[in-house]
From TrEMBL, chain A:
One of its GO terms (molecular function) is oxidoreductase activity. It comes from the Archaea. It comes from Stygiolobus azoricus. GO terms for cellular component: plasma membrane. InterPro entries: Cys_rich_dom (IPR004017), HdrC_iron-sulfur_subunit (IPR051460). This is (Fe-S)-binding protein. Residues 187-271 form the Cysteine-rich domain.
UniProtKB/TrEMBL annotation, chain B:
It holds the Pfam family Fer4_8. One of its GO terms (biological process) is lactate metabolic process. Keywords: 4Fe-4S, Electron transport, Iron, Iron-sulfur, Metal-binding, Repeat, Transport. GO terms for molecular function: 4 iron, 4 sulfur cluster binding; oxidoreductase activity. Residues 291-322 form the 4Fe-4S ferredoxin-type domain. This is Lactate utilization protein.
Length: 285, 383
């Protein structure tokens, strides 16, 4: 069963699939370890490009008795990993410039459990949420700064399963205002979670709007309840469907602007196959 | 682009902006939708009481009411009323499709015709419907030309317009309406206090199916019951608006067999319309679902079909997502409710558009999450 396998991997590798943990942590150099406020990556940006590789393994995953050997073999490409690190470093820099103090858990940073939740493994997610919550409490963490919507959403759902009372905030909510690094028109591909589940759609839109770029909108493409998913969340279940949704989404967005900006590493990974995609943290500073 | 891609894009472009426009032009509709949600929840929380009240009300006004726990019972009840060698005209009904009624009545030796244009095309093509209110949206005009030519054996020009195609079907079905022995329809809403049923339509086929034949049978899931006549009218209004067809051309109300009060104001049944009215209420999984706090939300669905056109999965998979007639986001919920199929729910990407646009405020992604959990739980118990 996929849920069981993911849960086992979480215990073994601290991640839904086998991975060398240094991939997750090497972006951070000068951030203090731990503290009451932490930046929490859940290794999402660092591994987003791998979701494709691992979705190919899923049909066979249950037949493989041990995936440990894969951990050392499968890594994002040098280019992909450097880009992910640059995004995270820019997020961290933007926060520091605005005087936000935070630490990082490095190799102790747990995964959020988002994939269990999104695949409907609610029992496993609940069990895992308790483990992570206890860990955060043990570390004395009072405030978590998230950098992606899937992690943010998973943390907010913890309270349905355990006594989770830690403050969770998205990094862009702490930015105040930003300056654009690019010029001209852009189109935003909203994260479904930020836009329709977490009520943050206007936060990054207003940041972008006042940054100097021009947002192109279309009622049927970028509206709150018309903008489509990137297809990412369905990838572990049905790759073909996920890819078709991504292709369709890129076609829609391209009609509005060549500059497509996303606010989620999963959107980034899924749409990048069909067009050059920019992350929010690449277009502002 | 595939035929499906073309057809669904045209539909989205026609329908989605029209619903937005309706909602801003007639702002009271959103308030009515909220009121309706409350009323429907009240019924779901006291389902048995409302079923009993509805059946009593139908009998009080001279109709017959039946309760069927599953599709086999429902089909038997209807087959007994219809008999053999009859001409039956059907108004589009998801419940009739759910119970395989058309095929069943045909097997018993009846001539059975769908009268909703889209459903009629579906019958001719022998295909499953692709959308709950526009069952043939996957067919382009070109395809319809071919279908009518082949199946009705009539002359249809290659360049026939939409209007000409509609006229051909109109001519064909007119004769069936006049000769029909039984009309079978669904119900958009059933008023528990009066036993009335409401049907919303545009074509006029429902009017004819419910009035021309001497017998009218309505079939509906128990979730279609609303507390009062007033709420039934609300449901008609809200359903039409969110389906993008507001005002609806017709709202058809039936309270028992036809009647007159013209001689000394004494109400007498029948008059010119049907002399018999039958209501068949179907459970088929609904009652059990009404007892689950999360899943019960699905029973609030008023079948407006709006969620379909906002859903990326439906946009790609169309009729292949869900168990017909239950396709799209609502279908992913309903495939589980009536067929116990959890697979469609597992294909939800939780884009969340459906919950934003649903007039009943159904948290569809949450319902589907629970169905995924049920599927995983079953799997877990196997291993
Ligand atoms: S689930 Fe909501 S939007 Fe979808 S068909 Fe039902 S009432 Fe309409």
């Amino acid at each position: 069963m996929l849920g069981k396998l993911i849960f086992q991997n979480l215990q073994k590798f601290g991640f839904p699939y086998p991975i060398d943990k240094s991939v997750c942590t090497s972006w951070a150099k000068d951030i203090p370890r731990g503290g009451e406020t932490i930046i929490y990556t859940s290794c999402m940006y660092q591994t987003a490009s791998l979701s494709d590789v691992f979705s190919k393994f899923i049909p066979y995953a249950e037949k493989l008795s041990s995936l440990s050997a894969l951990a050392k073999l499968i890594k994002p490409s040098k280019e992909e990993i450097e880009r992910a690190y640059r995004i995270l470093q820019n997020i961290s820099l933007m926060l520091k410039r605005r005087g936000v103090q935070f630490g990082y858990l490095y190799e102790d940073e747990p995964y959020s459990g988002a994939i269990l939740l999104e695949l409907g493994y609610l029992d496993e997610f609940g069990e895992y949420a308790k483990i992570v919550t206890d860990f955060f409490k043990q570390k004395g963490i009072k405030r978590i700064i998230t950098v992606d919507p899937h992690t943010h959403n998973a943390l907010l759902r913890y309270k349905e399963f355990t006594n989770f009372d830690i403050e969770v905030v998205s990094y862009f909510e702490l930015l105040g205002n930003v300056k654009a690094r690019i010029q001209g028109e852009i189109v935003v591909h909203d994260s479904c979670l930020y836009s329709r589940f977490l009520g943050k759609r206007e936060v990054y839109r207003s940041l972008l709007n006042s940054s100097g770029v021009k947002l192109v909108e279309d009622e049927l493409v970028t509206g709150k309840d018309t903008s489509y998913c990137c297809g990412g969340p369905i990838k572990p279940v049905n790759r073909e469907l996920s890819e078709k949704i991504a292709r369709l989404r890129v076609e829609q967005l391209k009609r509005l602007s060549e500059n497509i900006v996303v606010v989620c590493p999963m959107c980034y990974a899924n749409l990048s196959k069909y067009h050059k995609i920019l992350d929010f943290a690449e277009v502002v500073e | 682009m595939s035929e499906w891609d073309i057809a669904v894009e045209r539909t989205i472009n026609n329908n989605v902006p029209r619903v937005y426009k309706t909602l801003s032009q007639y702002p009271y509709i959103q308030d009515l939708a909220k009121e309706l949600r409350k009323a429907k929840l009240e019924v779901l929380n006291n389902l048995q009481k409302y079923v009993e009240q509805t059946m009593e009300s139908v009998k009080r006004i001279g109709g017959n009411a039946y309760y069927a726990t599953n599709v086999y019972e429902a089909r038997e009840i209807i087959a007994k009323i219809v008999g053999k060698n009859k001409i039956v005209v059907l108004g589009k009904s998801m419940v009739a499709y759910e119970m395989g009624l058309r095929e069943y009545l045909k097997e018993l030796g009846n001539e059975v015709w769908e009268t909703d244009l889209g459903e009629f095309l579906i019958q001719l093509a022998n295909e499953p419907p692709s959308h709950i209110i526009a069952p043939a949206i996957h067919m382009t005009r070109e395809r319809v030309v071919k279908l009518l030519r082949e199946k009705l054996g009539v002359e249809v020009s290659e360049n026939a317009t939409h209007e000409e195609l509609v006229a051909i079907v109109r001519k064909f079905l007119r004769e069936k309406f006049v000769r029909a022995d039984v009309g079978i329809t669904g119900a958009n809403a059933i008023a528990a206090d009066t036993g009335s049923i409401i049907l919303v339509e545009n074509e006029g086929n429902i009017r004819m199916s419910t009035v021309l034949p001497p017998v009218h049978i309505a079939v509906a899931g128990v979730e279609k019951i609303v507390p009062t006549f007033y709420h039934a009218l609300l449901e008609a209004t809200v359903q039409a608006a969110y389906a993008g067809l507001y005002p609806p051309t017709y709202i058809n109300l039936t309270s028992g067999p036809s009647s007159t009060g013209d001689i000394e104001m004494k109400r007498v049944r029948p008059a010119h319309g049907p002399k018999e009215f039958h209501l068949v209420l179907l459970d088929n999984g609904r009652v059990k679902i009404s007892q689950d706090e999360v899943l019960k939300e699905a029973l609030l669905c008023i079948r407006c079909g709006r969620c379909h056109l906002h859903c990326p999965v439906y946009r790609v998979l169309g009729v292949n997502w869900g168990v017909p007639p239950f396709t799209g986001p609502m279908g992913a919920m309903w495939s589980y409710i009536v067929y116990g199929d959890t697979k469609p729910a597992t294909l939800c990407t939780h884009s969340g558009n459906c919950k934003e646009v649903c007039p009943m405020g159904i948290n569809i992604p949450r319902v589907l999450e629970k169905i995924k959990w049920i599927a995983n739980d079953k799997e877990r118990n196997k291993t």
